[in-house]
Amino acid sequence: MRRVFLTLYAIGVMALPVITPALAQTAEERARALAAHPPQDLDTYYSLKTEIGDDQTGAVLTALTALAYTEANIPVGDVVSGCRLPQWNAPVSAGLLLALSASDRATWTLYRDDARKRLADWDRIWGLLQKQEKTEADFDAVAGQIAASQHEPTEKGRTLAQRVARDQFERRSAQITSEKRLWAQGAAEPVHLYLSAIIYAHTCAADIDNTMWLKSQLAESGGSAYRFTVPMPTKMRGFWFSTPITMSLSRNRY
Predict the structure, then answer these.
(1) Which of 138, 154, 173, 237 is deepest in the core (most CB within 10 A)?
(2) Concatenated DSSP letters for 115-159?
(3) 183-211: per-residue pLDDT in tens?
């Protein structure tokens, strides 16, 4: 028995020089792992930076960009409009950039907590709108759309009205963030860039979801964008329906 143990031990020791290098991950491997399972906890990004250093974290960020362009079938370096890059790209890249911007753990904690609080403030506004409670004047039009949706005579009409409201909330939020107002007011530049990326990702997610829903409705009706027969919300005819929908379908953006 002792001889068997010593033999196994010897094999293990001899194998170590072979196994250990194989465990090291390349920047491309780390990028693929982050893309496949985007971290939900911001601390994951800072922990990665602490583990591999700034230079290697930057290399992972570069690899992420290349992977995103490859998945979207776009040449790296091309200017990208709309939401053509994978949905994981903006939040994962933003998390890495925020971590790289922090010179030490104290700064990281400050950035992380501030970003979380500001995003919670932004999300709270949507919650208030959904409950039809008073919120920021910037969203009065969205509040009106949500209220109008309650009076739509059909389920599809109500669904469409709610989707319009969400679409306009996201777009208005992106504009407010770029103007550094409300939840973005006074944010440090790294935090502001992070907020912009996350809200952009939410806007794209809403765009993609709305487009897929509309395509399914068009498939059911057997029509084109100009023959779509879902009753339009009374106060929104010719507004969101006539432009983003037909444009997204005709350009095959998603």
Answers:
(1) 173
(2) HHHHHHHHHHHHHHHHTT----GGGHHHHHHHHHHTT-SSHHHHH
(3) 999 999 999 999 999 999 999 999 899 88
